[in-house]
Write a structure and sequence with these properties.
With 275 residues, the chain is mostly helical. The chain has one domain (36-244). 70% of the residues lie in helices and 0% in strands. It contains 12 helices and no strands. It has helices spanning 2-17, 19-27, 39-44, 46-73, 83-111, 122-145, 149-167, 182-185, 188-204, 206-211, 213-243, 250-253. Bound molecules: protoporphyrin IX containing FE (2 copies). One protoporphyrin IX containing FE (HEM) binds at residues 59, 62-63, 66, 69-70, 73, 84, 87-88, 91-92, 94-95, 199, 202-203, 206, 209-210, 216, 219-220, 223, 226-227.
Length: 275
């Protein structure tokens, strides 16, 4: 107990001397009562949290079932007869969840870029983007239930166009739009929308993947690429998360010079007066 109290005291002392307490001192609030994250920062981590907690575990299960489906078909191992259906059912959820994940990211990026009363383009543009958002969500819902091949193709394309349309907005940060530059291939955005396209293909062509050997082969190739892109998203997403400052730190951090890797000196605050 004494040892525990000692560590708590050390931790508090560390906090008292840290930069964090400098910032908190401006508010004259005790460190224990204040979170360094504002509401907007919590919104910004919604997308990474969903990716880590929902998408990646689901991808693992879908890929494991995919290997079992293949080994059952090739009779290289004895597998339960349900593996194909389980893979396909969970695959549908994965595809829809990836679309949802990307829509969450794009909505948060666009809606929080500036205070809502200073929204670029005003009320008209906000309404248009809201309609695109609703249309995209309805379209993925329609793709989920559509049976006719033509409708499935149309809804898959409309959903992807909606995602690309939202992604093309100036608020959405993209490393580069030039496929000839190395930055394009490191862009979290471009591999993200590519993986959405691949998921929509699997979702739209599900009955054909079941029936047609050529399409099944195309599905496997497309999803090997998707698996690679999921890994790429994990790397570039974590990189971006490390680079994005908390909202109240942005004015200072964005004044840094990336070329010279230098920042303006931080203003030192006078020590907070003790109550
Ligand atoms: C990481 C993602 C995925 C991977 C790596 C993957 C891979 C595979 C593999 C290896 C097979 C077996 C092919 C064979 O028997 O030769 C398969 C079958 C299949 N996949 Fe996927 N897949 C993925 C996602 C999806 C998604 C998102 C869907 C649907 C929305 C889907 C639907 C299907 C269907 C319907 C089959 C045929 C199942 C059967 O034969 O009973 N897959 N997939
Ligand atoms: C299935 C995997 C993922 C896909 C398809 C995906 C896709 C996207 C897309 C399209 C954007 C919007 C463009 C942009 O602002 O760059 C975005 C934003 C972002 N992603 Fe991901 N992402 C995935 C996983 C992750 C992971 C694992 C992390 C971090 C651990 C992450 C972190 C971020 C961050 C920090 C942003 C900036 C905006 C925000 O947080 O909403 N992403 N992602």
């Amino acid at each position: 107990m004494v040892a525990l109290n000692g560590s708590v005291l050390k931790f508090k002392a560390w906090l008292c001397c840290g930069v964090f307490s400098q910032a908190m001192a401006t508010l004259r609030l005790p460190v224990e009562l204040v979170s360094p994250m504002a509401m907007v920062d919590w919104l910004w981590i919604l997308h990474p949290v969903l990716a880590v907690v929902l998408i990646y575990p689901l991808t693992g299960i879908v890929m494991r079932l995919a290997m079992q489906t293949r080994s059952r078909r090739l009779k290289t191992a004895k597998q339960p007869p349900t593996v194909g259906r389980d893979h396909s059912d969970l695959g549908r959820w994965l595809a829809a969840a990836v679309v949802g994940l990307v829509i969450v990211a794009l909505t948060v990026v666009i809606a929080t870029h500036a205070p809502l009363d200073q929204f670029q383009g005003g009320f008209r543009r906000a309404c248009t983007l809201l309609l695109v958002l609703i249309g995209t969500l309805l379209s993925v819902g329609a793709l989920w239930i559509a049976k006719a091949p033509g409708l499935r193709l149309a809804f898959a394309l409309i959903t992807w166009a909606g995602v690309l349309g939202l992604g093309a907005q100036p608020e959405v940060w993209r490393l580069s739009d030039d496929p000839l530059s190395p930055a394009f291939w490191q862009s979290h955005y471009w591999s993200g929308v590519a993986v959405v396209g691949l998921m929509l293909f699997s979702l739209g062509a599900r009955p054909e993947i079941l029936r047609d050997l050529r399409l099944r082969r195309l599905h496997v190739t497309a999803n090997l690429l998707a698996a690679l892109l999921f890994v790429v998203q994990g790397v570039t997403g974590t990189r971006d998360l490390l680079e994005i400052p908390l909202s109240w730190q942005k004015p200072t951090i964005y004044a840094c010079n990336v070329e010279t890797r230098s920042c303006p000196p931080f203003a030192l605050l006078p020590p907070a007066s003790q109550p």
